[in-house]
């Protein structure tokens, strides 16, 4: 299963289902009434909340989400406006429901000062109906996340930290725009896990330029040795707008790994985690034995859970409607405190069928009975290719199937809703929806 590569590959490319797939944008004149109606409904149980911090210290060449450089004088103004948005939303929203996972993402949330991190988390805990066991994640980088900030987050209720590492290979890190050498990154993660006593997860990428199988195995071995609760593994994607694409084209970097090489590296990761006794919680996420890691936010958001969104560029969902918060930083800051700075509202799949399918593929187990008839030929074709195995009631994804999970979701969506493209004005919506596998 792990070592025999198919020839040819079952797909020509890896594709993903974009968050706005199948949505019909609402005319702007309908936004106020629609939003008021949504705010008049209590949240479902096990809802989510996402808070976006849109600042970065530098533009990493592999990242397509960079928007605003770091300015300390702007950060406190931003947190002031963010807290005002949180308070206004709570005052205008029907009480009830529950938020079971809260995620501070970016950008780089840990660029904020210890004081601003603390008061932001305190405001969220005061104004949101968080469950007693709410997963509260702060995403960050090691460059700006020292003991004072870690302790401020924990004091304010954070119980999970997600750190972007990508690789421990120092020469590749330098090319990607990472400041710290790999051994320093490893020591920091080990310290954070031990010092915080909380769930600490790290991101790794495979298929990076210059990352051969030996370096990838070394990355996995290092990550498994640090006392982490969870590890994400993501395939590097050469999206056209990325700075790294131009670097490769000019010869400043070697080519990225091919799909065949990426599949081999994903298989290696699955094998190494299985041998270490780690559980596969999603296509890309693995949890340590006996750890408290639940991966609650990422699993629920991909399965279509309601999500409150706060901050410039954040994307949220209420029932069948999705919405975006103003992505332009100055426009967001200038919005009056008694208004929700909405930049987009759209109606999606009211049945929730696509979200249910996406959640099922993400966990590797698809119930067959609810599948529309037009998808069954695809399911049977994938079974013949070894991407899944069929029982009477379920389709179970194989290792290869989990690698191709994003592409399979996209093809299922195209069978169910072939006219799914959204042609609204382009927005960059931010949330921790890293591509599966």
TrEMBL record:
One CC-aspect GO term: cytoplasm
Domain of life of the native organism: Bacteria
All residue ranges annotated as the Radical SAM core domain in the record: 41-271
Range of residues in the leader sequence: none
InterPro entries assigned: Aldolase_TIM (IPR013785), Coproporphyrinogen-III_oxidase (IPR034505), Elp3/MiaA/NifB-like_rSAM (IPR006638), HutW (IPR026332), rSAM (IPR007197), rSAM_sf (IPR058240)
Keyword Magnesium in annotation: no
Any Pfam family: Radical_SAM
Cited PROSITE patterns: RADICAL_SAM (PS51918)
Coiled coil regions in record: none
GO molecular-function terms, A-Z: 4 iron, 4 sulfur cluster binding; metal ion binding; methyltransferase activity
Keyword hit for Membrane: no
Keyword annotations from UniProtKB, A to Z: Iron, Iron-sulfur, Metal-binding, Methyltransferase, S-adenosyl-L-methionine, Transferase
Cofactors demanded by this protein: [4Fe-4S] cluster
Segments crossing the lipid bilayer: none
Gene3D superfamilies cross-referenced by the UniProt entry: Aldolase class I (3.20.20.70)
Database matches in SMART domains: Elp3
Gene Ontology BP term (one): porphyrin-containing compound biosynthetic process
Protein's name according to its UniProt entry: Heme anaerobic degradation radical SAM methyltransferase ChuW/HutW
Annotated source species: Crenobacter intestini
